[in-house]
Write a structure and sequence with these properties.
By secondary structure, the chain is mostly beta strands. The protein has a single domain, classed as Lipid/polyisoprenoid-binding, YceI-like (Lipocalin), CATH 2.40.128.110. It is 8% helix and 52% strand. The strands form 2 sheets. It has an 11-stranded antiparallel β-sheet with strand order 1-5-6-8-9-10-11-14-2-4-7, covered by helices on one side. It has a 3-stranded antiparallel β-sheet with strand order 3-13-12, with no helix packed on it. The protein starts with 5 loop residues before the first strand and ends in a 6-residue tail after the last strand.
């Protein structure tokens, strides 16, 4: 199986981009681990015959992270809780700045690709290396750990610091790239 070469566009209609946060601190059990769907984003993947010729770009709107679910909390999240979380992420965490990624190299790795590039969060650009799993059907999966403080983001803290969002969050991407049909 070979992937179709050329430029491929991805977005919420045909792929999934999520952010997962995890709680910590002495009052962690009253908080929630969050699964956030990124609802407004677009990516382009330029597929070449060899990985060295590939290029990836992604942009997402800071205000498009919506709470899909809150896990492990004492009580369920209300619609008001979800709206407050969304506003806090947009205003205080991402500072209403777009999320941008641009690759500068792609190389093969066992069962996938390693992508080096630059990620911009909250107005700060830093290098990022991500491993993408790629199967014979063109399915792409990635789980990328990011430390918020590396981008100048102070993780959320409440209840006088007794409840915190862990500095490390996880970004998950699932997509399917077109393949050449023999």
């Amino acid at each position: 199986m070979a992937l179709a070469t050329g430029r491929h566009a991805l977005g919420p209609g045909d792929a999934s981009l999520q952010v997962r946060t995890y709680r910590e601190g002495v009052a962690a059990r009253v908080g929630h681990d969050l699964v956030l769907d990124v609802t407004r984003w677009e990516a382009t993947v330029d597929v070449a015959a060899e990985p060295a010729g590939w290029a990836l770009e992604l942009s997402a709107a800071a205000d498009s992270l919506h709470v899909r679910e809150g896990l492990h909390g004492v009580k369920p999240l209300t619609d008001k809780d979800r709206a407050e979380i969304r506003a806090r992420i947009d205003e205080r965490v991402l500072r209403r700045q777009p999320i941008l990624f641009r690759s500068n190299s792609v190389r093969p790795d066992a069962g996938g690709l390693v992508v080096d590039g630059e990620l911009t969060l909250a107005g700060t650009a830093r290098p990022l290396t991500a491993r993408l799993e790629l199967d014979d059907d063109g399915n792409v999966r990635a789980a990328i750990a990011l430390r918020q403080s590396d981008w100048g983001i102070k993780p959320y803290s409440g209840m006088l610091g007794a409840l915190k969002v862990r500095d490390e969050v996880e970004v998950r991407l699932t997509a399917r790239l077109p393949r050449v049909v023999a």
